[in-house]
Amino acid sequence: MHSLGVNSYRFSVAWTRILPRGRFGDVNLDGVAFYNAIIDALIQKGIQPFVTIFHYDIPYELEERYGGWLSPEIQKDFGYFAEVCFKLFGDRVKLWVTLNQPNILAKFAYMDGWFPPARCSKPFGNCAFGNSSIEPYIAGHNMILSHATAVSIYRNKYQEKQGGYIGISVGARWYEPLRNTTIDLLAVERAISFNVPWFLDPIILGAYPPEMRKILGPNLPEFTLKQRKKLRVTKLDFIGLNHYSTWYVKDCIFSSCEMDPMDGDARAVSLVERDGVLIGKETGAPFFNDVPRGMEEVVMYYKQ
Questions:
Q1: How far is C-alpha 62 from the chain's CA centre?
Q2: What are the structural domains, with CATH classification, of the chain?
Q3: What SS3 class is residue 170?
Q4: Out of 52, 68, 208, 239, which could bridge 97 as a Cys pair, Cβ 3.0 to 4.6 Å?
Q5: Helix and strand numbers, DSSP H then E, in the chain
Q6: 205 neighbors 236 (Cβ within 8 angstroms)
Q7: Distance CA 74, CA 271 (A)
Q8: Which superkingdom, per the lineage (predicted)?
């Protein structure tokens, strides 16, 4: 990286490598040594470490004890984990991402069942356990509040003396209407709302997008006054957007559609082509054979 002139490197800390049992066990010193070696080597070469605290893995014990992201208890564990990271690495790490693509994880893990803990229900999937109509939004709610917990700890105890910055990174799909019709234009608005604003609106504005509330009703959790205040005072130093692709969107309220694993909850379906013409240059088609719709981005990410 140094020979290429790279001046910053973003990597993720594995929760399981630092705290194998969450706050119910000891810090794994071998894991700490591993990340210290990476951070020190980067700094020695003039490369700024940019650390993501959470990137999809949680200690198995937290899943067993209380259901992981489906329980508000996870907020305590995530705050504990984040503070351990601030204490151990914050003297050298000045850029922190609390959560990586939590909006993608909530859908893949709790709506489609593709990622652990593999929970879903029809029509999105056929898992042994789960409820695709409710659980993605419970998990997302707890992720948002866990983010706020970590930011609050950093703001109050570490930011001033360590001089760093903290934000969040979300998976940012973009959408264009498949047809120049009012219903497809409204479908674009819904699809966007169920993507980035799902997480950023609560963090910045203290409430979920109205398009989500209109469709989901009571299945979308509410923030208490105390939680809204917490979100309002923590805020963000920066926003990270992981953008892989743009999609055409077709309305599925007034039009017949196949179930879309990514945008079906927004009552829309996303497509890569219109009238046989791809929305953009084809880059990874050979790797997409027999890949479930919606997983193309994930396959491409890991292939790279």
A1: 19
A2: 8-245 (3.20.20.80)
A3: strand
A4: 52
A5: 12, 10
A6: no
A7: 35
A8: Eukaryota
Could you tell me if 115 and 58 are in contact, meaning their C-beta atoms sit under 8 angstroms apart? Answer: no
Name 48's bridge partners: 8
How many CA atoms does the CB half-sphere of 4 hold within 13 Å? Answer: 6
**Cβ–Cβ < 8 Å for 251, 187:** yes
pLDDT of residue 288: 43
- pLDDT tens digits for range 77-92: 999 999 999 999 999 9
Please, what is the Cα angle at 72 between 71 and 76, to 5 degrees?
120
E strand spans, 163-294: 165-171, 174-177, 238-242, 246-251, 268-271, 273-274, 277-278
| In the block, residue with structure tokens 């056929």 | 126
Kindly state the tokens that stand for 250: 């077709």
Closest residue by Cα to residue 259 from 124, 70, 141, 60 = 124
48-54 and 95-100 beta bridge pairing: parallel
Summarize pLDDT for 149-185 with one digit per residue, the tens.
999 999 999 999 999 999 999 999 999 999 999 999 9
d(CA 119, CA 113): 5
Which token pair is 96? 């922190």
Dmax (CA) of the chain: 59
Question: For residues 79 and 150, is the Cβ–Cβ distance under 8 A?
Answer: yes
Alpha helices in 90-154 (DSSP H): 102-110, 135-153
Strands 273-274 and 277-278: antiparallel
Q: How far is CA 213 from the centre of its chain?
A: 20
Query: Which SS3 state, helix, strand or coil, does residue 220 take?
Result: coil
Tokens 């013409």, residue? 277
- Neighbouring C-alpha atoms within 13 Å toward the C-beta of 207: 7
**Calpha distance 90→86 (Å, rounded):** 5
Spatial distance between the Cα atoms of 113 and 90, rounded to a whole number of angstroms? 35
- pLDDT score of 296: 53
